[in-house]
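Task card 7
Instruction: Convert sequence to structure tokens.
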Amino acid sequence: MCQTHTCTLFHTIEAVQSYGFVYVRKRPLVVALGMIHLRCHGLQYGHAPRIVRFPRTHIEFIDRFFAPNEVSEILLTFSDPQMKKATKRLTSTYFLERYRRFLTDGGLIHLKTDSNFLYTYTEEMLKANHLAPECSTRDLYGDPNSSLFTLHSSLDLTIQTYYEQMWRERGIPIKYLRFRLPHEGHLIEPDVEIPLDEYRSYGRNKRSGSETGK
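Output:
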């Protein structure tokens, strides 16, 4: 299962090596563009057609689309860091509890982001809940161990999207973190102040006048 921006969708589908792929967006134009691209290019996995689905929905309702244990991995690429409200962050305990309803026990969650805030928040969330990341780096394409991160995963981390290249040209490294989510255990939010990102996409300024957030 994947949640990502339109412009990274096509690179993301190529990067995911598993047979089934579900792309979640609420905007009909985005869904339509994805379907057109796949029809025109006829993406294949091995010798069998790749299975791709495009549920048009709010991500808050994602647990209504899958049966228990139906999903083995979740890929979160360049999600909005939602610096004002923790429950809107896709790696918050609010969403982790929803993922538990359909993710296999110990299923993988991948986070790929340019946002230092979201990456740091996710690190702190894992620490607060005694969950150890399988791999974690603040500079995916500059890390000498990045080739090892693909082990035990269906994600090819060597493929860079248009936006990843854009961020790197601006001197902003791509962060990557992967962890397993168990079904058992009470989850709590981290109680730490995290420096806010000082930029936004397309060169806009940060949304808040504050310097830190939780």
